[in-house]
Amino acid sequence: MKPHFKQIVIVILSIFLLSCSSDDSASKTPVTPILPVTPPATQVPTTPINNSIKYLALGDSYTIGQSVCETCRFPEQLKSNLKAIYPQTDFSLKIIATTGWTTSNLISAINTQNPDSNYDLVTLLIGVNNQFQRMDFSVYQKEFPELLTKAISLAKGDKKNVIVLSIPDYAYTPFAANYSEANRMKISNELDQYNTFAENTCINKGVVFISITDITRQGLSNSNLVASDGLHPSELAYKMFIGRIFPQVKMILQD
């Protein structure tokens, strides 16, 4: 075989062998399969609560549920809603409230009844009758902080177990519909003053304050929010109160 021809054959064989080697290497290279990504299952943690929960509701007609059925008032609705999601827990409810009570009346009633100081939850809604009876605002300034301190002591001394609700606005009810515009505005402004003081007191004490006044200010545009007496909130209005209270109550009981 001629030298020149040998060189050509060697070159061709070399190219062929390199090609085979490259193909063989490629075939041996491990391939990582692309697997579909499955997101982790999201589970809502369920925090157990005590087997027995004691709830104390302090207030006036808005707590006792004037002109609505017994199970329609907001403390009873709250208890019912809690029972629905915690069926294994025994819920007891005590109400210290009467239509027409002022802060002075509520203080006197608490002192007379002398309830235990072991409540897991205490709600407080008071002040409309101070305004309605034209009591000097200084009475509320003195007595609301006293009531808040008392509510905390009744809630096992834990401020986190207390919720204060703002005062509803009766200027937006059929009862006050015939009042002059100036008089209705005066009522609303005075109740705003009461609620602002209560909220600031709660902030200073580290207590939760929940405003529901705006719900009651829909009373003239939505008659379903007013009870049959034309003055107090209806079952539906109280249900809307619960919509705002309930998340905070669950946090309290799960803490």
Give your account of this protein's structure.
The chain has 255 residues and is of the alpha/beta class. The protein has one domain (52-254): Rossmann fold. Helix content is 49%, strand content 11%. It has 9 helices and 5 strands. It has helices spanning 3-28, 61-64, 74-85, 103-113, 128-132, 137-154, 181-205, 213-216, 235-254; strands spanning 52-59, 90-97, 121-125, 162-165, 208-210. The chain has a 5-stranded parallel β-sheet, sandwiched between helices. The model is unreliable at 15-45 (pLDDT under 50).
What would the keywords be for this entry?
255 residues, alpha/beta, Rossmann fold, 5-stranded parallel β-sheet, 9 helices, 49% helix, signal, SGNH_hydro_sf
Major β-sheet strand ordering: 2-1-3-4-5
The CATH first-level class comes to Alpha Beta
Q: State the CATH topology.
A: Rossmann fold
Count of separate structural domains: 1
Total DSSP E strands: 5
Secondary-structure-derived class = alpha/beta
CATH architecture group name: 3-Layer(aba) Sandwich
Could you state the oligomeric state of the chains shown? single chain
Q: What distance lies between the first and last C-alpha atoms, to the nearest angstrom?
A: 96 Å
Q: What number is the mean pLDDT?
A: 88
Helicity range: 40-55%
CATH superfamily: SGNH hydrolase
Largest sheet: 5 strands, parallel
Low-confidence stretches: 15-45
Rg value: 35 Å
Give the overall silhouette.
globular
The number of helices is 9
Spell out the helices and strands N to C. Answer: HEHHEHEHHEHEHH
Strand content: 5-15%
